[in-house]
Design goal:
With 116 residues, the protein is of the alpha+beta class. The chain has one domain. The chain is built from three helices and three strands; from the N terminus they run H-H-E-E-E-H. A three-stranded antiparallel sheet has the order 1-2-3, with no helix packed on it. The longest helix is centred in the N-terminal third of the chain and has 24 residues. The protein is flat. The mean pLDDT is 92. Bound molecules: zinc ion (ZN). The site of zinc ion (ZN) has 8 residues, from loops.
Length: 116
């Protein structure tokens, strides 16, 4: 008998597994077990690549793109803001990731202006 693969179902399960693995990585990071935490991130990304599933938006910025450590502010990462950017520094390898937040600032100003 031919075993049929159901792509949609496979991808849905893959996405679920990725979320589970990222949650595990988060809890390991919280307990300062860097090795395990990194391993979970690695597995989650590997599943994503295999089944062509993106990293869930919630976890997109939550790991170091260089060493795959799970980035938990104050535990494994340092977060600083300035010049319309958020800089997240990985405390294990020192890589810095920068994200813009100018738009958020603008939105906030707009809401405040409306409130007054
Ligand atoms: Zn790193």
């Amino acid at each position: 008998m031919v075993k049929r693969r159901h792509r949609g179902m496979e991808r849905r399960i893959a996405a679920e597994r990725m979320v589970t693995l990222f949650r595990l990585a988060e809890s390991e990071a919280l307990h300062r077990r860097a090795g395990r935490s990194r391993r979970y991130v690695e597995l989650a990304r590997r599943i994503g690549m295999r089944y062509n599933v993106r990293v869930p938006a919630l976890f997109k910025r939550s790991f170091c793109k260089k060493c795959l450590a799970f980035l938990l502010p104050s535990v494994t990462a340092r977060v600083r803001i300035g010049r319309g950017r958020v800089a997240v520094t990985c405390t294990s390898c020192g890589a810095v990731q920068r994200y813009p937040y100018k738009r958020e600032q603008k939105d906030r100003r707009a809401t405040r202006a409306r409130a007054q």
